[in-house]
Amino acid sequence: MTVSIKDIARAAAVSHSTVSRALGDSPLVSAETKARIQRLAQEMGYSPDAQARSLVMGRTLTIGLVVTTITDPFIAEIVQAVETTAHERGYSVILATFSSRREREIAAVEMLQSKRVDAVIVTSSRVGAHYLAHIERLSVPVVLINSHSAHTGPYTFAVNVDNRHGACVATTHLTDLGHVRIAYVTGAADHSDDQERLAGYRDALQHAGLPFDPALVVAGTGRAGGGERALPRLLAVQPPPTAVFCYNDLTAIGLMRAAQHTGIAVPRELAVVGFDDIPFASYIDPPLTTVAQPTREMGRQAVEMALVLLESGREPASDLSNVVLQGELVVRESSGARPHRVQPDGQSSVSNTQERR
Amino acid sequence: MTVSIKDIARAAAVSHSTVSRALGDSPLVSAETKARIQRLAQEMGYSPDAQARSLVMGRTLTIGLVVTTITDPFIAEIVQAVETTAHERGYSVILATFSSRREREIAAVEMLQSKRVDAVIVTSSRVGAHYLAHIERLSVPVVLINSHSAHTGPYTFAVNVDNRHGACVATTHLTDLGHVRIAYVTGAADHSDDQERLAGYRDALQHAGLPFDPALVVAGTGRAGGGERALPRLLAVQPPPTAVFCYNDLTAIGLMRAAQHTGIAVPRELAVVGFDDIPFASYIDPPLTTVAQPTREMGRQAVEMALVLLESGREPASDLSNVVLQGELVVRESSGARPHRVQPDGQSSVSNTQERR
DNA sequence: ATCTGCTTTGCACACGTGTGCAAAGCCTGG
DNA sequence: CCAGGCTTTGCACACGTGTGCAAAGCAGAT
């Protein structure tokens, strides 16, 4: 049904080799036959078979995108960016969801291996070491996005947001507004993101010359319910905080919902700042001040990095390093300042950090 | 680097044909050599090359998923369901975003053609006829999800939500609560979804014996801003409505935000019902009563349908019809009733409708 | 006219896998 | 002991594409 290179060869009365070269714009074919063949291919509706080509070339021009769930608005944005950038570079994206079940995981890796993907990009908040080991067995470049994994193999690199700096900027925004009692609601306990954001929070306090009060650090869950339950515990602290930095937007949203029910005015009585800038951060009331993760940039950089690793001929590029991107403070109304945006470090939102040994 | 079927043949001192048959569990191979080869393949870490296999078999076990943007929470859920179901059936999913630019569209189709996808599933709220024509040129089964297209070719089928019935159920929920002045805020003008939901709204009024008042139909945009701007115009109607059914959740959210600023209590002074059940419908205050689209089911059915078309040997299955799924009314607090869920038609949430000529 | 060098084309093989057909091996019945 | 049938294996080709190498065609120089 589909027209192959041989069909064109028959129609043009040449060998299939000549057709292959003509379509590849090789200088080994005379200009006139080249033009004739190309016109013929156009007319016959020829479309090269990527399977056959990659079989010969040893490259599939395909990257596997491993994801826990696309339902997460974050991950969705990153997926979008990865897909767009990959297509710009001539690569296709094949999707693989890593559900919770162990067997599905190995099935997914097996699939990626069968499809002979050239590289793998992983976007999962939590990547267990053994899962990563499975993926690395593909002996293919691996780029982790916001996936803090202790071990990074010779082909494995990471693109992360600078949690510490972002949290510091967010908290500094509150100290700049004159707050001196600022709380922090944590995320899930085992999350390394949380540790880093807590550190950034403490950095900001120190810069402002404020003392760190452990009573003002209240445990959340990373989900809305955690923020909801955190509010009464915050109000019980003496003296109570006048501002709160939340691990993420969902936590902040839950906390603000509780505040509304309790009759506490945001931001007049309690200023709130989140982290992530999920799409609904601007829809809630009052619109949430938060640190926007550069999702588009993260997806783009992940693809670029994967391609660099690919081009470098499977030899780990010695001068390649992990990438750490800066978030952007988006000031809306929940923090009590007039809405604006704060670009990190002037124009450049990218900084490279040498992390490899 | 990667171990092929020939490497195993060499190690087992047999021909590659025998290895191929052994791994395919063919009865033409003796039990003992079969076991020996399979063990050997396991040890050597053999993974079949999908490219080579599909080259011979004429099937890639891959379906192309065309999408406008994964950022839309709807589409994300459908993508998730499609991916999961496809993997259960042994198919991979390759992603293609249809951005607004025309050239990217044809590039995407070209890519799907090169990859020789076995079927295409389209999830786009608006599919132009010419785009669909491009896709149909692949001469591959096409399944449209919630994409109302006038023309459906011999290989093209659709899975849609029953907008009319869903809107009727939502509006009936309001009439059951005793409301007699019920407004409707429309979506984008050219959307056929909107026409169908408006029809369902009128059905419900008629069933309840209420008159249809054109003044109570106010134009929105399908986005939050439209709902926001619709509220004052609703309040100007005499006598004013006590309830409003919105084209979708975003419209309802915008309208509720405006209500909060205007000092109108929801649901006490104005009951609000939306459509879609986006994830944040339950996070806003008060939680939104809405019609949940069966996204998981839609994704699943789309894949099943594509596979049926595939199995039917490219001959359009004569007894196949488009699928129309029923939404589920999710009653939360914005409509003023006690929260519960209403399953459509008892247990079965699926109904087939003959639509082909 | 012959040789040399350049351009253009085709042959043949490769990639990794599946399968029809023939051949070889084995067993059983005569 | 041999024929026939059954089981098991290998040869060869196919899928669609890319490429090294040889060969053919051609022009120019001696």
Overview of the structural elements:
2 copies of one chain form a homodimer. By secondary structure, chain A is an alpha/beta fold. Chain A has helices spanning 5-12, 16-23, 31-44, 50-57, 73-88, 102-114, 129-136, 163-176, 192-207, 224-235, 249-262, 295-311; strands at residues 62-67, 92-97, 119-123, 142-145, 156-161, 182-185, 217-218, 243-246, 271-273, 290-292, 323-325, 328-331, 340-342, 350-352. The first copy, chain A, contains 12 helices and 14 strands. In chain A, the strands form 3 sheets. Chain A has a 7-stranded mixed beta sheet with strand order 2-1-3-4-5-11-14, with helices on both faces. Mean pLDDT of chain A is 89; it is low at 346-357. At the A-B interface, helix 4, helix 5, strand 2, helix 6 and helix 11 of A face helix 4, helix 5, strand 2, helix 6 and helix 11 of B. Strand 2 of chain A pairs antiparallel with strand 2 (92-97) of chain B, so a sheet runs across the interface. Chain A binds a DNA duplex (30 and 30 nucleotides) through residues 4-6, 14-18, 20-21, 24, 26, 28-30, 33, 48-49, 51-58.
Largest sheet features of chain A: 7 strands, mixed
Strand/helix succession of chain A: HHHHEHEHEHEEHEHEHEHEEHEEEE
Quantity of strands of chain A, as a count: 14
The quaternary organization reads as homodimer
| Overall 3D shape of chain A | elongated
Q: What structural class do helix, strand and pairing data of chain A support?
A: alpha/beta
Number of helices of chain A: 12
Determine the strand fraction of chain A and express it as a percent band.
15-25%
Give, in spatial order, the strands making up the sheet with the most strands of chain A: 2-1-3-4-5-11-14
The N- and C-terminal alpha carbons of chain A lie at a distance of 55 Å
- Using only C-alpha atoms, the radius of gyration of chain A works out to 26 Å
